[in-house]
Amino acid sequence: MIKIKIGVVLVCLLLFTGTAISQYQITGSVIGSGGYTTTNTNFIFNNTIGESFIGKSINTGNQQLIGFWYVYQKQTITAINDEENIPISFKLEQNYPNPFNPTTKIKYAVPERTRVVIKIYDITGSEISTLVNKELDTGWYEMDFNATALSSGVYFYRMQAGSYVSIKKMLLIK
């Protein structure tokens, strides 16, 4: 009877020692998650019940992110704004602010190296000013238009780049 009790105590002691060492090797894996296997270079855990109390077990050979207290958060890309990097087509955007007094911003995109011409016209179609007339590399461009010398009214700005032509309307209010 005494030999059996000593054997049971030794087996329990060995099991406890193995568990203590394994928890030291993989921190936080106190009780595993239903049937999930956790491994590293020294140990293999076949978890059968419960959840991890801490929720995160990491070492050089394994990362286990499970458990009752663990909230999974992953940084997910929700949008890709290619327009901010490299434009895929020519584009002339609406000036901002509009109406304006006396300055406004004009933004445009050039997807390939080409000559770009942007001119300002009044309501009668007379050319007021040439803002851009040069060869530009691929990219987004933004410029300020100052209309201090102009009177209030409707003006148009026109962008031509190769076969691309776009015209936008802007309103100067003084």
CATH architecture of the largest domain: Sandwich
Number of strands: 11
Which sheet architecture does the biggest sheet show? 4 strands, antiparallel
> Could you tell me the mean pLDDT?
74
Tell me the count of domains: 2
- Percent range for helical residues? 10-25%
CATH topology of the largest domain: Immunoglobulin-like
In the CATH hierarchy, what is the class of the largest domain?
Answer: Mainly Beta
Tell me what portion of residues adopts beta-strand conformation: 35-45%
Distance between the termini: 106 Å
What are the secondary-structure elements, in order, as H or E?
HEEEEEEEEEEE
What general form does the structure show? elongated
**Structural class computed from helices and strand pairing:** mainly beta
Enumerate the spans where pLDDT stays under 50 for 5 or more consecutive residues: 6-33, 68-72
Rounded Rg: 35 Å
State the helix count.
1
Which strand order does the major sheet show? 8-7-10-11
Features:
11 strands, 2 domains, single chain, 174 residues, three-stranded antiparallel sheet, Immunoglobulin-like, 14% helix, mainly beta
Can you give a write-up of this model?
With 174 residues, the protein is mainly beta. It has 2 domains: 2-65, no CATH class; 84-172, Immunoglobulin-like (Sandwich). 14% of the residues lie in helices and 40% in strands. It is built from 1 helix and 11 strands. The chain has one helix spanning 2-25, and strands spanning 37-39, 44-46, 56-59, 62-65, 91-92, 103-110, 114-122, 127-136, 139-146, 153-161, 164-172. The longest helix is centred in the N-terminal third of the chain and has 24 residues, at 2-25. The model is unreliable at 6-33 and 68-72 (pLDDT under 50).
